[in-house]
Each structure stands twice: as C-alpha cells, then as structure tokens.
Design a protein that fits this description.
twelve-stranded mixed beta sheet; 564 residues; mainly beta
Length: 564
C-alpha cells in the first residue's frame, strides 16, 4: 500500500464529503432515487503506537480527533498533548480509503511512572518500580532528553510493549517532574483477596488502601488489566485512590455493550506464542484458528518478538479472535546520512545511495531544531541529516529486493560528526535555484536549518542571494552539498538591522544546537540492545556517542549498518 500524506485540511474535506468532520452529519446523503442508501460507517477500535500527526496516526490510519474525547491516564487532553511513541486506543470510523477516519474517543495510558532505581546504559536497561525496561534504537524520547542523560533517581514516564520475558520494551520515555504519585499498568496475577495484594508483571501491589469503585463492573480477578496509582517503597507498590481498569485492555464489561461485532485492530510484538493456538500483545490474548489469514508472511513466520497487526473480533470472553494477521518486520537496517532525493510519487527517499520505500507504518520524528510536529515525507528536503531505520524484503522471481523505512528521524546537520565531510567554499553566488545556490561552480543545498548571517529567514536570503559574496560551510555526501552556515563578506552587510536580526537568529540556533550535542549520543545505550544480536548496534551507538561537538565546524558522518 502506498503512503500518502493527508493534511488536516484534506482530512477535513474528505470527512465532510463522507458526512464526517467536526460539525458534519453522519447521515448518508440522498441517493438520487436509488432504492437503498449507502451503509453507515461502522464503528471500529484500533490500538497501537502513535506514529505521527495529521491528525493522529495509528496503525496507518489518519484519525481526525478534532471532536474526540481524549483521555490519557485519567486526564482530559487535546491533540497537541499527544506524542509519537505513546500507546493509545481509538474508537471511531474509518473511511472507504482505509487511510483516514474520524475518532469519537482516544484513550491512552502510560505503562509506568516512577523513579529509576538502577541503570545500565551500555546494555540499554533500566529498572523502575521493580520493572525491567529495555531501551532500543526504536525508543522515542522527550524533546530535551537523550538516553545518556538518564540517571538513578530520575522520575520517568514509560510507554512500552511487554515481551515474552516480562520486560518492558520502551516505545517512548519522557521526564516527569511530579513525584506526588507513581503509576503502574498491567495484567494482574496472584490475586490475594485476604491480604489484598496482587502482582503486576512481578511487582507486588498492596491494594488495601485503594477502592474498587471505578472498576465499572469489571471483576477484580487474575487476568484483568489495571492501572494503579500510589507509592513505592523499593519492593512494594502501595496503591491508593481508585483501581482503574486499563484503557488498553478489553476486559471492561461496558466497553462494547452497543456492538457485539465491533471490528478490532491491535498492533504490537508477539509474546507467549503457542503456535497455531494463541499469543499475547501487551497482555491481550489473541486466538488463532484455521480461518485466520496471514498477510506478508505465513504461520511459520509468527514468532515471539515479531511485530504484527491483528484484525478481528472479541469472543464471549473478550479475547481477540484473529481474522487476519499482518506481519511487520523489526528494523534491521540503520542508515545515517544526508538525504539525496525524495520521490513524492513513488513515496521513497534515497540516503547513502540506498532507496527506502515509505508506507503507512513509517513513523516520522523531527529531532532537529525545527521540531516540526506534523512532520512527514513532504517536509523533507535534499541535504537533510537523517537517521533511517528499516528492513529489507528479499527479492523474488518477479520482484526486486526492497528496503522499507520503519522510522525516519531528522537531526541537526552536525549530529553525527565527521570532519571528512567538511566543505568550505568562498565566492560569489553565481546562480539561485529552488532551495540551492551555486558558488564557484558548486551547487549547494540550503534549508531552514541553514544558519544564514544577515537574513531573518531562508526566503529573504534566496531573494537577494544572486551576486552576493559568501563564505559557506557545508556537508557533502555522494555528490550532495548541504550548507550548515553561510556568512556574508563584510562589504555585503550594510544594514545594521540585518546584523541585529542575524545575531538574534544565530544565538537562537546555537542555543538549540547545545541540546543537539547531547542528542548526538542518544542511541548509545538504545542501539546496543535493540535486537537479539547487539554487536552492530553497539558499533553504531559508539559512533553516535563519540559525536559531542556542537560548534560551526561540526559535521556529519554517514554510516549504514545492520542491527540484528
């Protein structure tokens, strides 16, 4: 399936045409005399990781959440509060194109909020609230956070999946300043109604001071997925206030009262696999039968740890009966370098000479100082510094080998650091193109990330650039040169206001770069433990952590490595 970016306006127009949108009617339009009206859109539930915005993208569908009730950890939020990497569940309708929809409700949950009690950055492992948390190359971080900044005592919020070993595989980690209450979510076991305790993934919880009033008809029993809030004394989690049925479980009795045949889409890594019978995704039991269909794979490809997207319905016990299972491979390619080209028709990019296809499951994250929230394929520019993770689909008798991008991150130009890439050139601007200039016969790409002395923004510079004498510091890779900084010769700067603007802009940029210097090593722990084989990851992590320079001469290095 090809991936197509839908802007909020496009989504609104599509929804309006389908009878949706913030103020539209859900009643189908008259059919000009036809004997039957189109069927009303059916309510569906989708649960998985947020991979982007425009409005909110989950499991490859762009959901308009403009009129949705958004609840995360019991707090009412708005779309701008949501973050890539969070695990959410959306109730709503999906349009006929299968790519856009309208949400009536979005529920999210943080799997853990608590202090780090131990940390091994080399192994990429944290412990908090008695839970082991694995950092991988696919973990998203708070805007001002890198893995190397984490330390014992820090209070963090963790969004995660659970693997077969009971380890939380972090999809996102954020700072949490409030130490008033900690939180733990998961399936309960070893319930003791006499001593009023149970286990959540191995952590003992005392609920003697908590209340059951918010269970909404659910029965407190082993297998129920709960969210508990309280305190932690180092070994015991002491719950207080209400015990809450998890937003991300299906055992709440009033969830699906209005529709017994509701369609469910659930994504995540396979755990606790019993071949041909069942497996779990984050504690939710998925049943396999002879009618289950497999997409992009066969039943033998279904193993613990593989990422899947399951479509099906709930049975009488509120377990998910799989009608279709789509296998999504874990990222095994890690490619860092300058973007050489973008093809919006083919939905592909080229980095380090490797072509990557973009699909509906590709996540985008802007870690550069631009920090574009609605970051997508159309926001990329030739010369951008990217870290692309993905996987390869082997060639067949009829198709060539393909590389699929699972995650694309944009960084500041100097993020990966290597002086061999440096290009410095002085001369007169001989030609101006679309986001490029030519100096001494060398075409150089410019972007909003280029720091330009004497000009408030890129458009003003391009409008006046022809004939200016400039000094350019740039990065080069595979014949592509991208400007990091452009300075004017003294004779070309005569406007004091421009100088003032430049100074202000430069200070702002350099302030942003200071945080990027620590970001350049963010994968140092994450990459080492991202997959079962960590040697290639460790090399990549070491490469990133060695890059800490944030001055103007800092440059970027390309590396294409495989992480098992």
């Amino acid at each position: 399936m090809k991936y197509t970016k839908l802007s909020p306006l496009m989504i609104s127009l599509l929804l309006a045409a389908c009878g949706g949108g913030s103020g539209g009617s859900n009643t189908p339009a008259a059919n000009n005399g036809s004997s039957s009206a189109p069927a009303a859109a059916k309510t569906e539930v989708t649960q998985g990781m947020v991979t982007g915005f425009g409005s909110v993208i989950v499991n490859g569908v762009h959901y308009d959440v403009g009129s949705a009730n958004i609840d995360v950890d019991g707090k009412t939020l708005v779309e701008s509060d949501l973050k890539v990497g969070q695990i959410v569940r959306i109730t709503g309708t999906v349009n006929a194109d299968g790519k856009s929809g309208k949400a009536s409700k979005l529920e999210g949950e943080t799997q853990l909020v608590g202090p780090i009690s131990s940390i091994d950055l080399e192994a990429g492992v944290l412990v908090a609230l008695g839970q082991t948390i694995l950092l991988t190359a696919d973990t998203f971080y708070d805007d001002d956070m890198t893995a190397n900044q984490l330390k014992v005592g820090d209070i963090i919020e963790v969004s995660s999946y659970l693997n077969s070993e009971g380890v939380m595989v972090a999809t996102r980690i954020d700072w949490e300043d409030d130490d008033d209450a900690f939180q733990l979510s998961g399936v309960i076991s070893a319930l003791d109604t006499v001593n009023k305790t149970f286990l959540i993934n191995g952590t003992l919880v005392d609920y003697s001071n908590a209340t059951l009033a918010a269970l909404r008809g659910a029965v407190l029993e082993d297998g129920l997925k709960l969210r508990v809030v309280g305190d932690f004394d180092g070994t015991l989690f002491i719950a207080r206030g209400n015990l809450h049925p998890s937003h991300l479980g299906f055992k709440r009795s009033d969830d699906f009262d209005d529709d017994d045949n509701i369609e469910i889409t659930l994504s995540g890594p396979v755990a606790d696999l019993i071949p041909g019978v069942s497996f779990t995704i984050n504690g939710i039991l998925v049943l396999i039968n002879t009618n289950t269909e497999f997409d992009d794979g066969v039943p033998a490809d279904l193993v613990d740890g593989v990422m899947v997207e399951v479509e099906g319905q709930l049975d009488a016990n509120q377990n998910l009966v799989a009608e279709e299972i789509e296998l999504n491979y874990r990222a095994k390619i890690s490619n860092k370098g300058l973007l050489e080209s973008v093809d919006l028709i083919a939905n592909s990019i080229v980095v380090n000479g490797i072509t990557f296809e973009i699909n509906e499951d590709t996540s985008f994250n802007d870690r550069s100082r631009s920090k574009v929230r609605f970051f997508d394929l159309e926001d990329l520019m030739t010369g951008d510094t990217l870290h692309v993770r993905g996987y390869t689909i082997a060639a067949t008798a009829t198709t060539a080998e393909r590389n699929i991008a699972s995650r694309i991150e944009r960084h500041n130009p100097h993020a990966f650091g290597n002086d061999d890439w440096k290009l410095e050139i002085e001369g007169v601007v001989e030609a101006v193109g679309i986001n490029s200039i030519t100096v001494e016969g060398q075409e150089i790409q410019v972007s909003p990330l280029t720091r330009i002395e004497g000009f408030a923004n890129l458009d003003l510079f391009l409008a006046a650039a022809l004939g200016l004498e400039v000094e350019v510091r740039a990065l080069t890779q595979n014949g592509v040169a991208t400007a990091i900084k452009i300075e004017m010769e003294d004779d070309d700067i005569n406007d004091d206001d421009d100088d003032s603007s430049s100074s202000s802009s430069s200070e702002s940029s350099e302030s942003s770069e200071s945080s990027e210097s620590s970001e350049s090593s963010e994968s140092s722990s994450a990459e080492t433990s991202s997959e079962s084989s960590s040697s290639a990851s460790s090399e990549e992590a070491s490469s990133e952590s060695s890059s800490s320079s944030d001055d103007d001469d800092s440059t970027s290095s390309a590396s294409s490595s495989s992480a098992a």
